[in-house]
Amino acid sequence: MILVVDDDPQVRATIARSVAALGYEVREADSGRAAIAMVEEKRPGMVILDFMMPGLDGAETAREIARIDEDVPVVFSTGHAALRALRAAAGEGAPILEKPFTLDELDQLIRETVPARRVRA
């Protein structure tokens, strides 16, 4: 299962539909706090996490997810404007899905980030 976290409902729905179109089970959260509660309830195989969110931002949310289970991979999603801030907060090696993205880019990133057995239903 892949958890998609974004405070913008349209962006979240678009990413979730894209992930589902690739054959993955998807859950959605509209905030960092909601994502943390979902991770505590059921460990996802991967989290796609918006970086710029009100309340807990992506970096803070990722730290909390790692505190719960450091083996849950987190991919940050962001628009070009926030890319520099994301790299400063999360590090140069953090996996990033830059918006807008293609279905092929999303598929490749998922495959590179986590083995299929961890994210399939």
- Give the DSSP E fraction (strand runs of 2 or more residues): 15-25%
Query: Main sheet: which strands, in order across?
Result: 2-1-3-4-5
How large, in whole angstroms, is the Cα Rg? 13 Å
Largest sheet: 5 strands, parallel
Number of domains: 1
Proper CATH architecture: 3-Layer(aba) Sandwich
The level of helicity is: 40-55%
Tell me the structural class.
alpha/beta
**SSE pattern, N- to C-terminal:** EHEHEHEHEHH
The stretches of 5 or more residues where confidence is low (pLDDT under 50) are: none
CATH topology: Rossmann fold
CATH domain class name: Alpha Beta
Mean pLDDT: 87
The number of helical segments is 6
Structure explained in plain terms:
The protein is α/β, with parallel strands linked by helices and 121 residues long. It has one domain (2-119): Rossmann fold, CATH 3.40.50. Helix content is 47%, strand content 19%. The chain is built from six helices and five strands, in the order βαβαβαβαβαα. It has helices spanning 9-21, 32-41, 58-68, 83-90, 103-113, 116-119, and strands spanning 2-5, 26-29, 46-50, 74-79, 96-99. Strands 2-1-3-4-5 form a five-stranded parallel beta sheet, with helices on both faces. Helix 4 (83-90) links the parallel strand 4 (74-79) and strand 5 (96-99). Helix 2 (32-41) runs parallel beside helix 3. The longest helix is centred in the N-terminal third of the chain and has 13 residues, at 9-21. The termini are close together. 31% of the residues are buried. The model has no long low-confidence stretch (mean pLDDT 87).
